[in-house]
Write a structure and sequence with these properties.
- By secondary structure, the chain is mostly helical.
- The protein has a domain of 333 residues.
- The protein has 33 helices and four strands.
- The relative contact order is 0.08.
Length: 753
């Protein structure tokens, strides 16, 4: 960077012109911008955003657009654009072409465009690194920045693991550092550890060696305590590639291994005594703490082969859903960013049951495939997956070919370190979403570009002539558009999520009106995210604004048609607007279809069927709800009422008696059970229950009428009249009570006092 600034000053002082000086300044900004992006991606997050990744994605949009814009602006100023002759262009164009075609047919195109734009920024960073970092000094700047960022990330994570929180965290003592999740830690560190090894192999100054050894030890320790089994496997694959020349067995290496083993055995006892004398806090020694960590790490690694393990079982279910989705849309997929919108519709009954047993009552919806290759296939179809594999394979092959042909030892070591990190990421991608995690994905594509750039040296590719005024203006305009697109994209993501997070906070505090205002602001920034409308609909529902809730939830479903929670909420909003019961039933039936093991879906479907007098539908829905929650007294009561309405009195008695055993002081249950006893002619039991219900809730008129009927059925006409006449005076317009009193008076006249 300093060289470009000096060149810019020299150009101004020697009369080279402002254009040449601006060109050098753009070069300097490009060279400084990549390390700045690496730092931002590693550390930027805000407690005022809903997820650690959001701030990093916003930073990626902002910085990638800025760097791409600078590249084109520099080309416009200099009047030429150098494009290397690289084999990556064809798979890159093939992938982007297929992705655009898939996007054109996607359901939520706006969300898909945002996801595709994020991928474009990452690919642009790869191209920038390929074209700009031919100078090893510039590459070293980026590599050192990445290594030192990893050192700080690991230090923060290890401090968190030991209960020292220098930054606010909602995850307790989990070693998430500034990345937000132990798996994201593994995504990031498995790229950096081989890179740090490469820098160690080429740096000779003592302070550099000390700094890099510190970084290596801290990042390795952080990866261990992060407990990511896929991360350990991925790093092992990367290290195998890194050390592959030394893994070929020879007699000399066998002797060295034997000597090292003997030395380790001899030193193990005294080293254990030393470690056992060093306190580590909590009344334990360092030896004991390390032994426990080793044991827990080994047990964690073994659990990766247990299909009953939570993380393994969860992935197996999601992979089954993703494969079903791919088989349904094999040609062009569902479009970029639309995976989460269609995955819920492809879960079988068996996987629903397995998911319910695994998750219990914890709300959890899969938004990622936990396998990048499956997700590429689902979103872009099998051709899209093939194009991405072609692109990734070409990048790795280009690095491998450069490694074989490179005659400079220093460049060979750096290339091998970068390739080891890339291979580790591709291995981990079979179990996670590394290429969508902004921290690891940014580093992945930058390292991929640096591998090619380091091995191209000063070679020249094809130079596009931009000397004419029209071409210069086009390049400058395209650069300005990139800067504008990146800035707007980053701002919309960050601002929208900020207001969304505030709305969720207000909602959790029981302030639906304030939450509503923030959700509306969030939608103003980023109106294609179904979550914003979903949460807005929930806030309206909590504020009893049912028509507004219906509108917001319908919009959410226009953006995500398979969102069972939103369907359930929409059904509730329609149910509260009694005139819309006919609309509520199909909505809730769809919610049940997508989430058949959620008892709330069945409950609301039953209520909607009741509302439109569909007793058969209500009975079926209540039975399903009770199959999921057999001890639900209210559901038992309501089912009993439905059986009563269809004259199935024995079933009604059975359900209501079960409900009464669960809640013996519930007046509604007692009153309805008393009514069924009355219909069955069990008058003494009916009298007891109805009197008990009335004592608990005196205002319920129907129970008092039933009690009068019980008294009349027992030929206690005078008692019945004494109860009925004051009741009629209090409720003179009650026609049933009028007829009842009239009948009682007639019976008294016939039967006499």
């Amino acid at each position: 960077m300093r060289g470009y600034l000096q060149a810019a000053r020299q150009a101004l002082s020697t009369g080279g012109g402002r254009g040449e000086a601006l060109g050098y300044l753009c070069e300097a900004l490009l060279e400084a911008g990549v390390p700045a992006l690496i730092v931002l991606i590693a550390f930027f997050y805000s407690p005022q955003l809903s997820d650690y990744r959001i701030g990093k994605v916003a930073a990626l949009h902002l910085m990638a657009g800025l760097l791409g814009g600078l590249w084109l602006v520099r080309a416009g100023i200099q009047g030429r654009l150098l494009l290397e002759r690289l084999p990556l262009y064809r798979p890159l164009l093939a992938y982007l072409g297929l992705a655009l075609l898939s996007l054109a047919l996607a359901f939520n195109r706006a969300q898909g465009a945002e996801a595709l734009l994020t991928q474009v920024w990452l690919l642009l960073l790869c191209l920038l690194a390929m074209h700009h970092f031919r100078d090893p000094a510039a590459a070293y700047s980026a590599l050192w920045t990445a290594a030192l960022s990893g050192l700080v990330v690991a230090l923060l994570g290890l401090l968190q693991h030991n209960g020292i929180h220098l930054l606010p965290s909602i995850y307790g003592d989990l070693p998430v550092s500034t990345l937000g999740n132990p798996n994201f830690v593994a995504h990031y560190l498995e790229l950096l550890i081989p890179l740090i090894l490469a820098l160690l192999a080429v740096r000779r100054r003592l302070w550099e060696q000390a700094l890099l050894w510190t970084a290596l030890l801290l990042t390795a320790a952080h990866l261990v305590v992060a407990a990511s089994r896929a991360g350990w496997l991925a790093l092992a694959a990367g290290l195998c590639f890194w050390f592959w020349p030394h893994l070929v067995p020879t007699s000399r290496r066998s002797n060295q291994l034997l000597v090292a083993t003997l030395v380790a055995l001899l030193l193990s006892a005294p080293l254990g005594l030393v470690l056992d004398s060093i306190p580590s806090g909590g009344g334990q020694t360092l030896y004991r703490s390390l032994s426990q960590l080793t044991q827990s790490t080994w047990e964690r690694a073994q659990s990766g082969f247990d299909p009953e393990n939570f993380s393994v079982a969860q992935r197996l279910i999601i992979w089954g859903d993703a494969l079903a989705l791919v088989s349904t849309h094999p040609l062009l997929g569902v479009g970029p960013g639309n995976f989460e919108l269609f995955l819920p519709a492809h879960r079988s009954a068996e996987r629903h049951q397995a998911w319910k047993q695994l998750m219990g009552e914890r709300p959890n919806v899969a938004y990622e495939a936990e396998n990048e290759y499956l997700e590429f296939a689902a979103e872009g179809g099998l051709p899209g997956l093939a194009a991405m594999l072609w692109l990734l394979g070409t990048m790795i092959w280009s690095g491998w070919r450069c490694l074989r042909l490179q005659d400079r030892p220093e460049i060979r070591v750096l290339t091998r370190g970068c390739l080891a990190g890339l291979i580790a990421t591709l291995v981990h991608s079979a179990f996670s979403f590394n290429l969508q995690d902004p921290a690891s994905a940014t580093l992945f594509w930058l390292l991929g570009g640096l591998v090619v750039a380091l091995n191209r040296g000063a070679s020249q590719g094809r130079t596009l002539d931009l000397a004419s005024a029209g071409r210069r203006a086009a390049a400058l305009g395209a650069g300005a558009l990139l800067v504008l697109a990146g800035g707007c994209g980053g701002l919309c993501i960050a601002a929208g999520d900020h207001y969304y997070f505030r709305g969720r906070q207000h909602q959790a505090e029981g302030q639906p009106n304030r939450a509503t205002l923030d959700y509306v602001r969030a939608i103003g920034w980023r109106g294609w995210d179904f979550r914003y409308f979903h949460s807005l609909g929930l806030a309206h529902l909590e504020g009893r604004r049912y028509a507004e809730a219906e509108a917001a939830l319908r919009r959410s479903l226009e953006l995500h048609p398979n969102n069972a929670p939103a369907l359930r909420l929409l059904g509730q909003a329609l149910w509260w607007q009694e005139k819309n019961a006919d609309q509520a039933v199909p909505v809730l039936q769809r919610a049940v279809e997508l989430d058949p093991l959620n008892p709330q879906s069945h409950r609301w479907l039953a209520l909607a069927c009741q509302q439109r007098q569909d007793h058969a539908g209500a009975i079926a829905a209540w039975e399903e709800a009770l199959a999921l929650q057999p001890q639900d007294a209210e559901a038992l009561m309501r089912l009993g009422i439905e059986y009563q309405a269809t004259s199935q009195l024995l079933k009604a008695l059975d359900r209501l008696e079960q409900a009464a055993r669960l809640q013996p002081q519930n007046p509604t249950i007692l009153g309805n059970l008393g009514a069924v006893y009355l219909m069955e002619g069990r008058l003494e039991q009916a009298e007891t229950l109805l009197k008990q219900a009335i004592s608990l809730e005196p205002a319920q008129l129907s129970w008092q009428r039933n009690l009068i009927l019980v008294l009349a059925g027992q030929r206690r006409i005078q008692e019945a009249l004494q109860a009925a006449e004051p009741l009629l005076q209090a409720n003179p317009r009650d026609e049933q009570l009028q007829r009842l009193v009239q009948n009682l008076r007639q019976r008294r006249q016939k039967e006499g006092p």
